[in-house]
Design the sequence.
């Protein structure tokens, strides 16, 4: 009896694809994919096979594996999702949309598949099609918060503010949740209807007092209107209900710091650390408060204590590299990389201070690439990489970074969020946010 070596046959299928024999590669995959695989291991093994083929750029082989897996497990949401992400990365818009159409027929309760389909149509500029997908999604998942909010986003992104308002009104009536309230308030705030936002906030904090973002918005709206006393009151009330909400503590401390109350800001952060021990964000803010106040020695002492309490915190190590005098930075970055080798913040700090600041351009580019590969969701890394290419690259390299950043669609990062979450920038997309963030970044020295 002939023994079939599965791995070798899959490798043959990959070779066939490289040679352009697509039908042959698909036939090989269909014939050998199930050989020698136990029933309980099938799904896991096939997903690994598909990933391996995709890594070898054998996309048709991967597609054939997904197709076979879906014929065996047509109602497995996780396989449809993996196949959809594969098509998003390596296929065309048409291949993604046709896959998603089949996916929602088999898994109508999988909200994420409906939302991916609607987003694909919207990004292609086909708003009516996106609307009708969301309407069908809603029939399959009545009163789904995610689908309500996706429909609202679709309308507000397309300047249909009254439609968005009506949808939010309906959502508050039939599926009221803290997030629906938050999005309703945010829309009014963005449109400059502060009175409406206030009214909704009063109602929201009564129903959802332990949802920290509502208190944050309340305080920020008051700060925007220069009502510091009311902002302070909102943050205080919020902290009584949500003592674990770190951003609330930071907003409270910064309000006092902006008012020139350094001692008060310091004591707020101390109180926050007592209630939330081993919180790197609070230590980082405490260090920065001292640095901004010109008290470098106190900042250094605090940093040493912070690293004792949070020895594996990337954000603290990254800040400590920046705080060192230039000759000591390399030693500090070696310590940081030993503690958190794959932390994007540490890699970013090394890219900036060890290579870029020292004009080691090729090395800096290599480290920036490592950073965005490890954490594509870190907007600050993309913005620094873009700024670096503005200084040392050409138009092609800048366009490449912009394109990769748009595909990654980052949502996090300290400087990134300052720009993207600023109310006046609420309409901006990734390609517009990236240069704005890059402009406001300090050059590493």
Sequence:
């Amino acid at each position: 009896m002939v023994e079939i070596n599965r791995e070798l046959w899959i490798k043959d299928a990959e070779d066939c694809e490289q040679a352009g024999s697509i039908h042959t590669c698909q036939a090989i995959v269909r014939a050998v994919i199930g050989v020698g695989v136990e029933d309980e291991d099938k799904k896991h093994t096939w997903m690994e096979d598909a990933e391996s083929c995709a890594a070898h750029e054998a996309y048709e082989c991967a597609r054939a594996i997904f197709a076979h897996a879906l014929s065996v497990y047509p109602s497995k949401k996780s396989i449809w999702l993996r196949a959809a992400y594969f098509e998003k990365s390596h296929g065309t818009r048409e291949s993604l949309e046709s896959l998603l159409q089949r996916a929602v027929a088999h898994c109508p309760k999988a909200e994420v598949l409906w939302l991916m389909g609607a987003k694909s149509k919207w990004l292609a500029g086909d708003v009516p099609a996106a609307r009708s997908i969301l309407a069908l999604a809603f029939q399959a998942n009545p009163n789904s918060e995610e689908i309500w909010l996706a429909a609202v986003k679709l309308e507000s992104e397309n300047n249909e503010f009254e439609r968005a308002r009506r949808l939010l009104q309906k959502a508050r009536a039939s599926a009221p949740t803290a997030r629906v309230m938050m999005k309703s308030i945010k829309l009014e705030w963005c449109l400059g209807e502060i009175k409406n936002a206030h009214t909704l906030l009063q109602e929201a904090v009564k129903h959802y007092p332990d949802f920290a973002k509502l208190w944050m918005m309340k305080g920020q709206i008051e700060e925007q209107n220069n009502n510091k006393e009311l902002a302070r009151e909102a943050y205080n009330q919020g902290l009584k209900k949500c003592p674990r909400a770190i951003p609330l503590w930071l907003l409270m401390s910064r309000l006092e710091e902006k008012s020139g109350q350094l001692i008060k800001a310091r004591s707020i952060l101390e109180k926050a650390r007592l209630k939330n021990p081993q919180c790197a964000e609070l230590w980082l803010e405490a260090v920065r408060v001292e640095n901004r106040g010109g008290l470098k020695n106190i900042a250094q002492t605090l940093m040493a204590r912070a690293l004792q309490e949070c020895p594996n915190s990337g954000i603290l190590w990254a800040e400590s590299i920046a705080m060192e005098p230039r000759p000591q930075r390399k030693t500090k970055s070696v310590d940081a990389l030993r503690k958190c080798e794959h932390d994007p913040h540490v890699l970013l700090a090394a890219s900036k201070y060890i290579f870029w600041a020292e004009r080691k351009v090729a090395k800096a580019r290599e480290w920036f690439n490592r950073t965005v590969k490890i954490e594509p969701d870190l907007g600050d890394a993309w913005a620094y990489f873009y700024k670096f290419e503005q200084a040392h690259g050409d138009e092609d390299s800048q366009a490449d970074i912009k394109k990769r950043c748009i595909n990654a669609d980052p949502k996090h990062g300290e400087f990134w969020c300052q720009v993207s979450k600023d109310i006046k920038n609420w309409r901006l997309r990734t390609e517009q946010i990236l240069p704005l963030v890059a402009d406001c970044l300090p050059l590493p020295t």
